Structures are given as structure tokens and as C-alpha cells.
Amino acid sequence: MQDYEESVAFLGTWGPFQRRVFILLSLTSIPCGYNILSVIFLLASPSHHCYIPTQSNLSQDWIEASIPVQEEAGKQERSSCSRYELDLVKNLSALGIGPGLEPVHNLSALASGPESVFSNLNQEGCKDGWTYSTEHYQSTVVTEFNLVCSDQWKQPLTSFVYFLGGLTGCLFSGQISDRFGRKPVLFGGIGMLSVFSCALAFAPSWPIFTVLFFMMGLGQIACYIVVFVLGSEILIGSTRVLFSNMALPIIYTTGMMVLPGTAYLVRNWRHLSLIMAVPGLACIPFWWLVPESPRWLLSRGRLLNAELLLRAAALENKVEAPKVIFLPSKGDEAASQKAKSLGFLDLLRTRNIRNMTLVQWLIWFSVSVSYFGLSFNMSSIYGSPFLNYFLLTVVELPAYTASWLAARSFPRRLSFISFTLLGALALLLIRSQSTVI
């Protein structure tokens, strides 16, 4: 069979059909970008300390003095996970003694003066829960399910489960789209992302939240992978390069930029989860406007469906389609038989393909670790987490533009090595600066 791009050259590269596909597929990446790092806001851990019940009848001075002060990273901070024994504090308050500034080594020292501090008194855990700062968040998953102190390990585990869902989506979305088509998997992923984002808002416990978060991560990565493949298969020539290197990443990043603004306005994690479903639901009507991949139809031996799709595209572009679009070569039975579907293991079957695959995996792993490591550490930087996250995403816009220009003008290998070295240099500078501080 003749080359696919030669077969569809009569459509041109930038007609009304291509513009429609280009715009709609770019827009379908917004839900993916909007949700990718929602974990930063949903699982934010505000500053906190032990809760002192109101029925303790302690003055505000006593309540503040009941929380030990500890040195953390060279700074004096109030303890997040312990308090002085509340019964003893109440006894001291009942004696009419106010919290003092000088250390007391034993209770008999109280007779020598009214002032006291508790540096040598026994401490206990937060038996009555915690008080959380509401400076940035009204509530998060951490504050509602108390994922702090002895349960602090649940917070990173939840993030891990979310990305484990993404890994699962990476492994299976391609196989499923090869079997059932790009379009059903794309909109199935968007639907899954929206449905489970809504379901998060009603999670009654941390285990249920974690399961729903896994499914949300699966849908998020599945829809982005498939929209990339679908656009790359429908579009040809310079339009395809512009779509994959420029339009799709920039629209995706735009979705990421909208999230911190939403989180700033909506400080409650349940309300934020509901709003996160809106972009995906808004994309569902695109089902009737986005075509299936002609390349996939050909790979499944569905020549008639592929030709009907391309003839409809020719009418939309106002060009004349040839009488026969796909000309089978002599002895070629691909037009009447389904092409053999390659599987995941085929990437490791031959030595040459295996070496290239392993190198690509190593590169992608390194880039992902750096990217998400920096993203998750934004919460530790001074200032508003919403502004910090917004600035983190804005910087990607010139980066994608530079990548597109480099792909047009320079060899791929040279461009990749240059950008990788630039990123490594930036990480080394960050490391050296943090060491100095």
C-alpha cells in the first residue's frame, strides 16, 4: 500500500478540517493539565499544632505556652505533634500561676516564684486532634483526615498512588486504543477523569479517597497520551510538528496555570474537586466533532471507513478527492486484512529497538523525577503557594516555544543534549544556592 501521507496529500496541511482537529484536540488537553498536579493543593499540609479543648478553661497565654517550642532547620518553631501534659497545665493554671519565661526543673521550684515554663515537663501527643492554619487553605485532605504526625506517611503514599494510576494508564491506554480506537479511549479517559474527580468530593474516608485518586490518575494520563497520538496520526507535515511541539503542550500548560487561580478562590478541597471535573465535562460534546484516526482504521483493515472519513474531510476542505485514495500494492493484502497489532513486549524484542527503548525510558525517568521533584517542593518555598505554582507553570510557555523553534531549525539530538545540559546546570545552581543558605 502506498505511503499514508502521500495518499492524503490532496487534503493539504492546513484546511478547515485540519484546523478543526488541531483546535479541538488541543482543547481536550486542558482537563489533563488542569488535574495533573492537583495533588499539590488537595494534599497540602498547613502548619498545625495540638488542639487544646475549650472546656479546659485555659487562658490564651496558657494555651500558647502549652505547645513546646522546638528548633527546626535552625528556626524556633512550635511543635506540630506534641504538647505539655494537659492535666499538669490545668493544675498550674488552677493555682493562679501564669506562664513564665524562666525554666523550671521541678514542681517545688514553683514556690519560689510565680513564673514558669515547661522545658523539663513531660509531653504528650495530640490526644484531642490538631489546630490547622487557615492562612492559605480552609480545608485539605490532610486537615480533614488528619494525615499528620504518626499518620504523616499517608500523605506521600496518596501522591504515590495517584502517579501509580498514571503509570497504569501509560501501560494500558496504548494497548486499549490499539484495540478499540483512539477516539473512544480519549473520551473514556476524559470521562473517567471527570467522574472520579467529582467522586473525590464525596469521599468519606482516606482509603476511599486514595482508591478514587488512583482512578483519577489513570484517566488523566490516558487521555493525554491518546490525544497526542490521535493528533499526530491525523495531522501531517508541519501542522503535526506545530501540534505536538507547540499547541498541545501550551494549551496543556494553560490548564495547569488555571488551577492555582481556582485553588486560590476555592480554599475547600471538596469544592475544588468538584470544579476540577468541569473542564472534562465541557469536552464531552467534542465527541461529535473529533474524527477517528484514519491511520488506526487502516491498521485494522477498515479501508472503507478510512476512505469515507477522508472524503468527508475533502468536502470540508473544498478539494476533490481522488477516485481511489488508497492504492494497494501488487500482492499487498493489507487492504483486506487487519494488520498485525504490535504489543508492549515488541519494544524489547530486538536488540536495536530494545537499546533505543531503554535509553528513552532512562531519559524520560530522569526528566520526570526532576520536573515533579521541583513541583512538589514548591510548597516549601516562602510565599503564597498559589503564586509559586503559577510562576512554575508560566515558565513552561517560553520553554515549549524554544523547544519548537529548536525542532524546526536544529538536529533533534543536538537540541535535546543542549536543553538537558541547561536543565542540569540549573539544578546544580539550585543545589549550591540551597547549600549556601
UniProtKB/TrEMBL annotation:
Pfam families: Sugar_tr. One of its GO terms (cellular component) is membrane. It is a multi-pass membrane protein. One of its GO terms (molecular function) is transmembrane transporter activity. Keywords: Membrane, Transmembrane, Transmembrane helix. It is found in: Membrane. Residues 101-437 form the Major facilitator superfamily (MFS) profile domain. The chain crosses the membrane at residues 21-44, 160-177, 184-202, 208-230, 242-266, 272-290, 358-374, 386-407, 414-432. This is Solute carrier family 22 member 4 Organic cation/carnitine transporter 1. It comes from Larimichthys crocea.
